[in-house]
Write a structure and sequence with these properties.
Layout: H1 2-20, E1 25-26, E2 33-34, H2 37-48, E3 53-54, E4 61-62, H3 65-76, E5 81-82, E6 89-90, H4 93-104, E7 109-110, E8 117-118, H5 121-132, E9 137-138, E10 145-146, H6 149-160, E11 165-166, E12 173-174, H7 177-188, E13 193-194, E14 201-202, H8 205-216, E15 221-222, E16 229-230, H9 233-244, E17 249-250, E18 257-258, H10 261-272, E19 277-278, E20 285-286, H11 289-300, E21 305-306, E22 313-314, H12 317-328, E23 333-334, E24 341-342, H13 345-356, E25 361-362, E26 369-370, H14 373-384, E27 389-390, E28 397-398, H15 401-412, E29 417-418, E30 425-426, H16 429-440, E31 445-446, E32 453-454, H17 457-468, E33 473-474, E34 481-482, H18 485-496, E35 501-502, E36 509-510, H19 513-531, H20 551-563, E37 571-573, E38 584-586
Antiparallel strand pairs: 1-2, 3-4, 5-6, 7-8, 9-10, 11-12, 13-14, 15-16, 17-18, 19-20, 21-22, 23-24, 25-26, 27-28, 29-30, 31-32, 33-34, 35-36, 37-38
Helix pairs in contact: 19-20
């Protein structure tokens, strides 16, 4: 009787302690208080590192009995807790309760700062750390701090190389459980997540949520530095690195640093030559998934991305975003050296090489270096003779896509580029820009040797060769070298006897365009102007010339003029003409 009374008194005492909120048990190490003895002991084990509970199957140790039992169920497969609504089973009571809240919609936990509701306590605490900035979890190896324990543990595996999660189908290993599950869905084809708005299916919950934001326009992530908003957390973090200059990812092969993990992996494939992505239609391999998908759309014709402003469609998201900047005028990329702004990152990097002089691309055949990959490939075709671009209309072949498009416009007559000043139209952008410089007087190209300025890059290069003495163009027939390529081509025509330029008046042929124009100017146009104005000699009335300026008479006079081009006294006397056509002309 006495023992039972004592137990009842202790129980009543503990109940009173629980209800009154008293915390009579104190940790010996940090003086933290607890309402129950068991909770206090569990906490003290975090200081001592004691793990008295051992798994029966793998001998792994735990500081809590409940945690040990949960772990043992991963071996036995036991799932004793069942959802009331869908009969789904769980090996943990807490997991079952969390799941049931999906059915009930219950969100019992509230953020202290913004009053947002959550169905899980851990999710609520993680959210509150966004407001407080607290990062209580620290990496053992590099001391980097994290707001989530799971994120910290995942990060530490980067240092240890541990990959504890294995695919059931191909035995590939992963350091994240979520990454493993996502990978397994590529085998099963499972797409359990559905968009609320368009009913599209997704393999990943995160991908589904990101997609839904394209319907709602929600951008919940904000840059700390410029307050720009993003729909993806990863996109926001990448953007913030453009402010901080942080490059946390390093290539294993050349130690080059990157601000994006995906960019680092893509770069590493340039060393390994790995191309893990294959086109479903032509089996062509690619080192990047996005490039592979973009390529597949050239087969299907799919263009899923639409401009917000003009409704133009694109097969690549990046192309659509670049196009939209034409409408908005946004230029988010800035040169480090001259602060010039660009709408595309690639253009900014290419521009910066004009400051640094970097030429990372080398020709396979002559080791000549280039700043741009496209220029290097175009140059290599001068060695291989490859001309992969074909005109739709005449089947003429070209080594550059731009040259092919410009040539096709000679067939279609399209002139899409218009001068800002006089509205004259051009078939090529470069010709339009060169023409506009005649209005502005701009001469952006300077000779390295004498600082003379030119409006045209090719004219500047030709001029520089007068200093260096370089003659890069040689004839195929006699190896004669020339500085302008036009001189070389003209020389080759004289060797072949080719005369492709024809006078529009007398059909005479010439091997150079300039000679043809000179002939038309001096032999036809100048004489025509003279004939169309009656002339007198010494002012005498009897010497006045009377003539008929019909086309037939003009051509007859011009042909005689050709025969008697210049007399000794610099006068042309057309003796064979009838009296009414006889003239005296001075030039």
């Amino acid at each position: 009787m006495a023992n039972s009374r004592l137990n009842n008194n202790l129980t009543d005492c503990m109940d009173q302690t629980t209800h009154s909120g008293m915390k009579s048990y104190t940790c010996m190490y940090c003086k933290k208080s607890f309402g129950s003895s068991s909770h206090c002991k569990q906490h003290e084990r975090t200081h001592t590192g004691e793990k008295p509970f051992t798994c029966k199957h793998c001998k792994k140790s735990f500081s809590r009995l409940s945690t040990c039992k949960q772990h043992e169920r991963t071996h036995t497969g036991e799932k004793p807790f069942t959802c009331k609504y869908c009969e789904k089973s769980f090996n943990e009571s807490s997991s079952c309760k969390k799941h049931e809240r999906i059915h009930t919609g219950e969100k019992p936990y509230t953020c202290k700062f913004c009053k947002k509701f959550f169905s899980q306590l851990s999710t609520c605490k993680q959210h509150e750390r966004i407001h407080t900035g607290e990062k209580p979890f620290t990496c053992k190896y590099c001391k980097k701090c994290f707001s989530r324990l799971s994120t910290c543990q995942q990060h530490e595996r980067i240092h240890t190389g541990e990959k504890p999660y294995t695919c059931k189908h191909c035995k590939k290993s992963f350091n994240h459980l979520s990454a493993c599950k996502q990978h397994e869905q590529t085998h099963t084809g499972d797409e359990p997540y559905t968009c609320k708005h368009c009913k599209k299916f997704f393999s990943y919950l995160s991908a589904c949520k990101r997609h839904e934001r394209t319907h709602t326009g929600e951008e919940p992530y904000t840059c700390k530095h410029c307050k720009k908003s993003f729909s993806h957390l990863s996109a926001c973090k990448r953007h913030e690195r453009t402010h901080t200059g942080e490059k946390p990812y390093t290539c294993k092969h050349c130690k080059k640093s990157f601000s994006h993990l995906s960019a680092c992996k893509r770069h590493e494939r340039t060393h390994t030559g790995e191309k893990p992505y294959t086109c479903q239609h032509c089996k062509k391999s690619f080192s990047e998934l996005s490039v592979c998908k973009g390529h597949e759309r050239t087969h299907t014709g799919e263009k899923p991305y639409t401009c917000k402003y003009c409704k133009k469609c694109f097969s690549l998201l990046g192309s659509c975003q670049q196009h939209e900047r034409i409408h908005t005028g946004e230029k988010p990329y800035t040169c480090k050296y001259c602060r010039k702004c660009f709408s595309q990152l690639a253009h900014c990097k290419l521009h910066e090489r004009t400051h640094t002089g970097e030429k990372p691309y080398s020709c396979k055949y002559c080791q000549k270096c280039f700043s741009f990959s496209s220029h290097c490939k175009e140059h290599e075709r001068t060695h291989t003779g490859e001309k992969p671009y074909t005109c739709k209309y005449c089947r003429s072949c070209f080594s550059q896509s731009s040259h092919c498009k410009e040539h096709e416009r000679t067939h279609t007559g399209v002139k899409p580029y218009s001068c800002k000043h006089c509205k004259k139209c051009f078939s090529s952008s470069s010709h339009c820009k060169q023409h506009e410089r005649t209005h502005t007087g701009e001469k952006p190209y300077s000779c390295k040797h004498c600082k003379k300025c030119f409006s045209n890059s090719s004219n500047c290069k030709r001029h520089e060769r007068t200093h260096t003495g370089e003659k890069p163009y040689s004839s195929k027939h006699c190896q004669k070298c020339s500085n302008p390529s036009s001189n070389c081509k003209r020389h080759e025509r004289t060797r072949r006897g080719e005369k492709p330029y024809i006078c529009v008046y007398c059909k005479k042929s010439f091997c150079s365009l300039s000679n043809c124009k000179k002939h038309e100017q001096h032999c036809h146009l100048k004489l025509r102007r003279h004939l169309q104005q009656p002339t007198t000699t010494h002012g005498s009335k009897k010497d006045r010339v009377v003539f008929s300026s019909t086309e037939e008479n003009l051509i007859q006079v011009e042909s005689l003029y050709e025969e008697h081009f210049r007399s000794e006294s610099n006068r042309i006397i057309c003796e064979n003409l009838p009296n009414k056509f006889r003239i005296a002309a001075s030039f």
